[in-house]
Design a protein that fits this description.
The structure is a homodimer. By secondary structure, chain A is mostly helical. Chain A has a domain at 20-78: Orthogonal Bundle (Arc Repressor Mutant, subunit A). Chain A has 3 helices and no strands. Chain A has helices at 20-31, 39-49, 57-78. In chain A, helix 2 packs across helix 3 (57-78). Chain A starts with 19 loop residues before the first helix and ends in a 43-residue tail after the last helix. The relative contact order of chain A is 0.10. The interface between A and B is medium-sized, with 28 and 29 residues. The structure holds a DNA duplex. Chains A, B: Belongs to the WUS homeobox family.
DNA sequence: TGTGTATGAATGAAGG
DNA sequence: CCTTCATTCATACACA
């Protein structure tokens, strides 16, 4: 969490603890609509945030990822509307027999192995 | 990752949680140069990994896809001055951490993968 | 010192 | 392949 007061940088911690200024700037950008910054944007942002404390590109990347996800999560929790998100998972449930498995993946070409063509039986 | 001592198996999670042994084997193959396993290879690998826990072909497929992509990102040191579509970076410490004591390589199967992926007994 | 919470980090799974 | 989403693990900190 690294809340105010004790600003990050000096912590010998293994993980990034953004300073108040950094968080402020990030939130500013977030409010501005930024959600999935490109690599270039991340680079720029990182450079800018560096003026306020140690920070790496990955920190910025994760910050946006997490902030967006949790923003959504909070909203979801607040409005528990009907479960409209039916997940239609059909488990392959395989007992994954070891040796002579039934034809699982029924195409054999040396072609691309894309998930879309998986055939679960 | 699914550390917490309790490896995968009993998790009621819907997603695959590779065991330490499985990860180790996958890492080994990756280090051996395997990047885009063919459907056949995936099938073999899956069969082999099944000796160490539940796993499906798509898990293996995704593992290689993700590992390759993130490995690449990890290695990125710098970004071009121009915001092209460069990659996002992650930290550089990759070394796979054994989440458990690991008593691997004990499988005695005479199985072979690809020439690059030699797994001696 | 234990417990809950906020959040950094990681990665499986898709989507495009 | 690259990008994004979802879920989880890990950790710092507030509070008791």
């Amino acid at each position: 969490m690294c809340p105010a007061g004790t600003s990050a940088s000096l912590s010998r911690s293994s993980r990034w603890c953004p300073t108040a200024e950094q968080v402020m700037l990030l939130e500013e950008m977030y409010k501005g609509g930024l959600r999935n910054p490109s690599a270039g944007q991340i680079h720029q942002i990182t450079a800018h945030l560096s003026n306020f404390g140690k920070v790496q590109g990955k920190n910025v990347f994760y910050w946006f990822q997490n902030h967006k996800a949790r923003d959504k999560q909070r909203l979801k929790k607040k409005l528990p509307l009907k479960p409209q998100h039916q997940q239609i998972f059909f488990h392959a449930t395989s007992s994954f027999s070891p040796q002579r498995p039934v034809s699982c993946i029924s195409f054999a070409g040396p072609l691309i192995f894309t998930p879309q063509v998986y055939i679960y039986i």
